[in-house]
Amino acid sequence: MSKRVSNTVRYKYPLPIHPLDLPQLFVHNPISWAYWLYSYITSYNALSNKIHVDITKHNNFIHIEVRDLADMKYLWDRGFFGTGQLSRSEPTWYEQTRKKFQSSSDGKSNGMSLERVTKLRRKQRVEFKKQREIVEEKLLQLRREGNLTPEQEVEILEQERDKLRKFKDDQASLHIMDQDEDITEQENKRLLLQRSEILDENDNLLNLESLQLMPVETIFLSFALPILDISPVDFISKCCLTDISRYSEDLHTLLIQYAAYHHYRSHGWCVRSGIKFGSDYILYKRGPPFQHADFCIMVLDSNCSKPYTWYSTIARVCGTANKTLVLCYVERLETEEQILEWLQRGQLTKVFNSFKVGEVIYRRWVAGRNRD
Amino acid sequence: MSTRDNEEKSIEYAVRTNLVHFQNWSDVRICDDQLQWRERTIKLLSGVPQTPLANGNTDPDGNPVKEYLLPVNLAQYKSDFISIECLDLIFDKLCEPDTKRIILSIVNDDGTIVFYFVYKGVHKPKK
Amino acid sequence: MTDLNKNSNQPEIDLEEDEIIQDWSTVSKFTNDNPILSIPKRGEKDYEPDNTNTQEILLYRAQKAMFDTLENSIRGTIIKNQVKAYYIHDRHVGWIPHAKGNFVQTMGETDKEGTLWLHYFEFLYLAERGTITPFWKTNNGIEIPLSIEDLYSFFKNQKEMDDFAIYGYLKRLGFIVKSTNDCIISQNKLSFYPSSVSKSHCINILQNITSIFNKTYNSLFNGIIFSQWHFSHMKYTSSPQIYMSLNRLISYNRAPNSVKELHHDYQFHSGNIESSDKTLQITFNVWKPNPTFKKKFPELPDFQIVTYNKNINDQKFPTYKDLQHLFQSLNYKFNFLMDPANSEFWNRNTYINDIQRQKILDDIDNNPRNKGKLPKKDTNIPENSTNKKQKPKRELPPHIQQLKRLKNGYRSFLLAIMDNGIVSFSKISEADFGSENVWYVPPADGQKKPVNNRKRSQKNKTKT
Q1: Residue B33 at interface with chain A, using a CB cutoff of 8 Å
Q2: Which residues contact C78 (CB under 8 A, 6 or more apart)?
Q3: Region B30-58: what's the mean pLDDT?
Q4: Is B33 within a domain?
Q5: pLDDT score recorded for residue A108
Q6: Region labeled Disordered — which residues (chain C) (predicted)?
Q7: How confident is the model at residue B87 (pLDDT cuts 50, 70, 90)?
Q8: Is A144 within a domain?
Q9: ipTM score assigned to the predicted complex
């Protein structure tokens, strides 16, 4: 019961931009009027400090991450945006690990003491240095032979460094641990390794988990509700493999995905990734802590026609999970050239005004169960 | 961007972190062997789950044994990529002989990773 | 054929009177409470063979009981009761001079002379069931008996064969199934829409509707420009206000959800329903089993079926436009408007050859020739409607009603999929999330918390 009350307080705001918090108005009290007016004029909806996001790209796959713990919580609590990569959805890894740590370092000597971690780390460092010496030796050897161009040298250096890092991450640690006469148990070995990665040099807990945002969430939070410290247009062009001078397949997919996302968000749904049910999105009525999602959404271009098995497969999966499958068709109403022009001029409102959604429910039907 | 950052953003690394710090696997490593497939480099991970997975092998004491994982980005999870031909190559070149299954680890753009078994040949389903 | 058992007043039993009454008592012994004696139920299967013979014996016994029963049944036709039916090759239809039997109530078209004309799929279905004996009549009056194999060779194309399989599947389950378009002798146009949704009368409203459906959104939307500073100069004092500014960005297709809107939508689109061989069309009307079905003045069907062969290459799964065309050409008891059992409502909103069904029924009632002839109708309909009318009194809370609207959608049809002889169905419905808002309104600061708590605990109750 107490948890419920706290949920009411915690998830009070359905969106990360709040309505004005105005004082109460008493009809017969002119001072309250003046105060109300003053509050109305001086307050505004926008966030005073924008939330910082890190956007990185690796092999053409984009990562959008919020790393600040307070920001992560802010975005989760106000509309359930983002996913904690080391949690089921809400980023709870840091809190849980901290708690686990406290309880185990308080007394219970399960062989996981901080000294242990320090010892492992020291060994790791020694091992790492040993390896580095080998690498440096090798490089020196090559230089002495004198047949290295600067480019080749850089390349080799980079390769060796990579190896070194990898060494640090996996093999070395495992290898060192095998030598540790104190550790026999597999589970302790695992815990020790796990801990060595989450404590910094001063034994403070690192936050390994960030709140990862989907590209569509990022557009929503930079364009529709501008609270992130990035420009939505720059982001869109970064998302697509090519620049936005061409109406590419990727761009079209991103635009229709966003149109659908915005459509559901703007009618009050909490829209989250549907990956676990084989769909693009799932819709929660208020959010994951309150109800199960009732709907799976597949976003399709309005001209799209897939092989029949595509529809039946997804419908079967959704049906088994007791969810209704909605095919959300998005139609582009303007020419590609027009959209590109608006996009290049940064007129995103016009861009998204040019998309229209239409919805269809697809459900398995069994004749024998429908005779009354 | 430094190489270090680059490395940490790789899907192999994402799966590794997930296994070590969320699923609590042990002996997790990114395997050295790799193969080129359709202009992409495929690398596996290996590791030992905390408890035996469904239909999995165990050692004589009932402890879980090593599993192989194939990290894939959802965006590249298309029928022309992970084909039978590709999987055959993976079983042949990247796994120890007699490996019965690998775990497809699909990394989504929201940071979620979903895991699916892929068996070599026909296999009895879960009860 | 054995003597017909005339007192089958039980609609649950799907056996038609004209069929041989089979004695299933031996088989029914196996649908026993004792799990050892009974046939394994659907869905309850053993995981794998357990290498004992228990499973096999069980299956063998069930199979044997079935075969024994069939072996001891009466075969063949008593000449006196034989129903001869004739195939006309040029027209690809069948006819029966003086048809008798239950099937006449739901199948084919009867002309003034009392001849029953059958669509080919009906003809073949009845022949397969042994209800009729098919013949080919030559010009000089010689009757040549036809085998089932002969009949199958008369199929014109794959589509006709698929349609027949789907027809047979639904008929065997007891549904009443009729073709939607082709007629053999008389056009009997069954519609939810009167052709007199008078065009002149409608033009004004039509124009309004056109603009509502198509234009207004865009012009409205341009009024709002999202920008970096939007939330600095706009003053939103409540969450709904913020949502309302957001939901003007993306326009959406509204699903017509009232009689009026359906009529308007029909008027607006009736001109542009183009049909080609490639596009899918509604093939069958389907009614749930109904002993009082009136072939001549049917109610609107309960479902409409679009048939689709998944393995024919040039038959693509419908695109959104195709789906919209299908929705616009639907004509059934739109159950989102009213409970299908409310005959009063449906008789008012059903037109047979453009005459309101209620009017047709009234005319029949008022005709002295029919006095006493139709007692069934008088007793049945009021009974039905009073039964069902009690239901809507328990009105569901608004958020549950909303959820039902979202889950069920609006106009819908059944897609019957043929996959190498296996028939399956999916229900495809028009949905409209754009017309519903589900946002959470935080309680005002002055409000006491318990109010909100109570609300939610109520919600939880209805959920379980």
Answers
A1: no
A2: C1, C2
A3: 88
A4: yes
A5: 45
A6: 362-398, 441-464
A7: very high
A8: yes
A9: 0.89
Contact C258, C280 (CB under 8 A): no
According to DSSP, residue C215 is labeled: I
* pLDDT at A127 (0 to 100): 76
pTM of this structure: 0.85
Active-site residue, A284 included = yes
What's the mean pLDDT when you consider all of chain A? Answer: 85
Reported confidence tier of residue C5, pLDDT bands at 50, 70, 90 = very low
Q: Identify whether residues A332 and A255 lie together within a single domain.
A: yes
Q: What is the pLDDT of residues C279-326, one digit of tens each?
A: 789 999 999 999 999 988 999 999 999 999 999 887 889 999 999 999
Residue at B124 is within a domain: no
Confidence check: pLDDT of C212 > 80: no
Å between A287 CA and nearest CA of chain C: 10
Query: Are C225 and A364 a contacting pair at CB < 8 A?
Result: no
Q: Do B112 and A194 touch (CB under 8 A)?
A: no
Contact A361, A326 (CB under 8 A): yes
In terms of residues, how long is chain A? 372
Over 90: is that where the pLDDT of C19 sits? Answer: no
Mean pLDDT, range A295-321, rounded to an integer: 96
Torsion of CA C375, C376, C382, C384, to 10 degrees: 170
Pick the catalytic residue from A57, A99, A175, A292.
A292
Lowest mean pLDDT among A133-142, A148-157, A284-293, B37-46: A148-157
Confidence at C228, pLDDT banded by 50, 70, 90? low
Q: How many CB pairs under 8 A join A and B?
A: 96
Assess whether A258 carries a catalytic annotation: no
The CATH number that applies at residue B71 is: 3.40.1350
How many Å lie between the alpha carbon of C244 and the closest alpha carbon of chain A? 7
C-alpha torsion C260→C266→C268→C272, nearest 10: 170
Residue from A247, A258, A284, A329 carrying the catalytic annotation: A284
DSSP C270: G
Contact at CB, A82 and B110, closer than 8 angstroms: yes
pLDDT at C202 exceeding the cut of 60:
no
Asked if A361 reaches chain C (Cβ–Cβ under 8 Å), the answer is yes
Q: Same structural domain for residues A246 and A185?
A: no
In this complex, do C253 and A358 lie within 8 Å of one another by their Cβ atoms? yes
State the alpha helices, DSSP H only, in A246-335.
249-266, 308-320
pLDDT at A135 > cutoff 80: no
Cβ <8 Å between A275 and B10? no
Q: Do C453 and A295 touch (CB under 8 A)?
A: no
Alpha-carbon distance of C374 to C379, in angstroms, equals: 9
C194 to chain A, any CB pair closer than 8 A? The answer is no
Per the domain annotation, does B125 fall within a domain?
A: no
pLDDT in tens, B99-113: 999 999 999 999 999
Q: Which residue is it, tokens 């939070």? A: A221
Indicate whether A78 belongs to any domain.
no
Does A67 fall in a domain?
no
CA distances, A326 to each of A186, A199, A281, C163, C433 (Å): 47, 45, 10, 28, 10
State how far residue C361 is from chain A, nearest Cα, in angstroms: 25
Tally of domains within chain B: 1
Classify residue B127: in a domain, yes or no.
no
| C contact residues 233-252, partner A, Cβ 8 Å cutoff | 233-239, 241-243, 246-247, 249-252
Q: Which helix (H) or strand (E) holds C373?
A: none
Catalytic site residue A323? Answer: yes
Residues C95, C108: Cα–Cα separation, whole Å? 9
More confident residue, C78 or A278: A278
Whether residues A151 and A257 fall in one domain: no
What residues in A contact B65, CB-CB < 8 Å?
A: none
Q: Which residue has the tokens 């026999």?
A: A184
Interface of A with C in 227-256 (CB under 8 A): none
Q: Which domain holds residue B56?
A: 3-119
Residues of C in Cβ contact (< 8 Å) with A15: 239, 242-243
Angle (nearest 5°) at CA C327 between C326 and C329 = 65
Domain extent, residue A162, equals 102-198
